């Protein structure tokens, strides 16, 4: 097989795989984006924008007080809510306050707040902005809680 033909076949295969992996928008909630699991931190610096959290994933030690600095750099209110493990939502309409393990309550745009959080069970927790429409707009993340 000629090198040019081999390259053309390889390119066609790459494009076919890329097309197969692509998705389409649907009403099933925000798309999942693979985010590398960050190193364990005993302090979190989280920035809210329209409509995302900086980083998108955080790792904290289990059973440890963790300082959270939550800054809203967007133009509307935002909050940072951690849902109970296994109580994830796929769309905003599934949300209810009883799903919330802990949260940094809504703060106005161009403001910040400091708070201490503690999670006593290791696991993977969904993080959302629970304000109406924000989750469906893509404002979600993941909190990993790990044993030391």
Provide structural commentary:
Helices cover 13% and strands 37% of the residues. With 148 residues, it is mainly beta. It has a single domain (38-146), classed as Cupredoxins -  blue copper proteins (Immunoglobulin-like, Sandwich). A 5-stranded mixed β-sheet has the order 3-9-8-5-6, with no helix packed on it. A 4-stranded mixed β-sheet has the order 2-1-4-7, with no helix packed on it. The longest helix has 19 residues, at 3-21. It is globular.
SSE arrangement:
Elements: H1 3-21, E1 43-49, E2 52-53, E3 57-61, E4 66-72, E5 78-83, E6 100-107, E7 111-117, E8 123-128, E9 140-146
Parallel strand pairs: 1-4, 3-9
Antiparallel strand pairs: 1-2, 4-7, 5-6, 5-8, 8-9
Question: What descriptive keywords fit this protein?
Answer:
mainly beta, globular, disordered N terminus, 9 strands, four-stranded mixed sheet, Immunoglobulin-like, five-stranded mixed sheet, 148 residues, single chain
Radius of gyration: 19 Å
Tally of structural domains: 1
Shape: globular
Distance between the termini: 56 Å
| Known CATH architecture | Sandwich
CATH C-level: Mainly Beta
Q: What are the secondary-structure elements, in order, as H or E?
A: HEEEEEEEEE
Provide the spatial order of strands within the biggest beta sheet: 3-9-8-5-6
The CATH homology group name: Cupredoxins -  blue copper proteins
Poorly predicted segments: 1-29
Strand content: 35-45%
Task: Find the CATH topology.
Answer: Immunoglobulin-like
Structural class of the secondary structure composition? Answer: mainly beta
Mean pLDDT: 84
